[in-house]
């Protein structure tokens, strides 16, 4: 039984949408690894949503963490809380697509004992009596890499992510100034106008490998709402790639869409910020002039991620909140 003031004996991590349409199912596994680091492997399991009710009945967890997006209308979510109640457990939803899908959050509010939102600015807009802000993170087993010497890095600039319009526009504007640089962009939906971009999704471990081989990894958030009409919330919290690249030992150049990122990494010591296209080429040139400084920045960012931004840290937070 999960009791207030005590730690749960067992945790089940499930997805909130079917794996057939869930492009972020690997985060479920990363969170399971985080709970395993805290509770031990025997106390933790994971399940796709399609098998979640059976997993609850078989495993009899004390806490179920439902992780993901609730924007899929056909996702069979209502059976999950019923199975959780039958097991005498508690149910937390961790929504990782706020604020872009904030209008769907009410589905989680109806079902959950507690709601965690990935975005700090979305937090005060929820009406649930028990809600917390919890950023995504990095997984030690998947993303951790030693920091390579800058002379061994085969790329000048790397970016991995979907081709959202703001990202395409940014790289199209930067394209001329990047001529002669070794640039690689991977993800879905990139246009032929960007010759260094390839429409190929990268597994998380491959992304970490490639980021560790770049002098700079670009961090540019998303600017495409799916369901954010109620309050039109701007994104506040950086996405998981910032934490993942830091753990992979990548010096990062982060687009300054807001200042919350400074709560997680120190500008100039652990990351670099930029807000205009010419700064990308300038940062690449600086990485060639000052390789030791960039390697040291990557070391500090990796240390910060290991100290505060892994899924084990997030698992401890979830356990503390749910036991309060």
TrEMBL record:
Any coiled-coil regions, as ranges: none
Residue ranges annotated for the Spore protein YkvP/CgeB glycosyl transferase-like domain, each copy included: 169-320
Gene Ontology terms, MF aspect: transferase activity
Any Pfam family matching the protein: Glyco_trans_1_2
Domain of life: Bacteria
Keyword Transmembrane belongs to the record: no
Keyword Transferase: yes
Keywords annotated in UniProt: Transferase
Name of protein: Glycosyl transferase family 1
């Amino acid at each position: 039984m999960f009791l207030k003031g005590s730690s749960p004996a067992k945790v089940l991590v499930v997805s909130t949408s079917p794996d057939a349409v869930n492009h972020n199912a690997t985060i479920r596994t990363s969170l399971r690894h985080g709970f395993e680091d805290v509770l031990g492997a025997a106390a933790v399991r994971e399940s796709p949503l399609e098998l979640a009710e059976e997993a609850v009945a078989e495993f009899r967890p004390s806490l179920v963490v439902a992780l993901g997006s609730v924007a899929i209308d056909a996702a069979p979510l209502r059976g999950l809380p019923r199975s959780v109640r039958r097991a005498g457990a508690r149910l937390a939803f961790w929504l990782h697509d706020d604020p872009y899908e904030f209008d769907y959050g009410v589905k989680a509010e109806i079902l959950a004992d507690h709601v965690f939102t990935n975005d700090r600015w979305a937090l005060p807009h929820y009406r649930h009596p028990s809600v917390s802000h919890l950023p995504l993170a990095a997984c030690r087993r998947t993303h951790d890499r030693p920091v390579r010497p800058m002379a061994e890095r085969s790329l000048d600039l790397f970016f991995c992510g979907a081709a959202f319009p703001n990202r395409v526009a940014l790289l199209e504007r930067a394209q001329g100034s990047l001529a002669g640089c070794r640039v690689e962009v991977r993800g879905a939906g990139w246009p032929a106008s960007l010759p260094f971009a390839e429409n190929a999704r990268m597994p998380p471990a491959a992304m970490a490998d490639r980021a560790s081989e770049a002098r700079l990894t670009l961090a540019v958030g998303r600017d495409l709402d799916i369901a954010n009409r109620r309050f039109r919330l701007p994104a506040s919290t950086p996405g998981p790639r910032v934490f993942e690249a830091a753990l992979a030992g990548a010096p990062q150049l982060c687009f300054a869409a807001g200042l919350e990122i400074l709560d997680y990494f120190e500008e100039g010591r652990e990351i670099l910020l930029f807000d205009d296209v010419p700064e990308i080429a300038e940062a690449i040139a600086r990485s060639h002039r000052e390789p030791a400084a960039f390697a040291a920045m990557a070391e500090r960012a990796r240390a910060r991620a290991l100290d505060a931004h892994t899924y084990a840290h997030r698992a401890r937070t979830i356990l503390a909140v749910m036991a309060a």
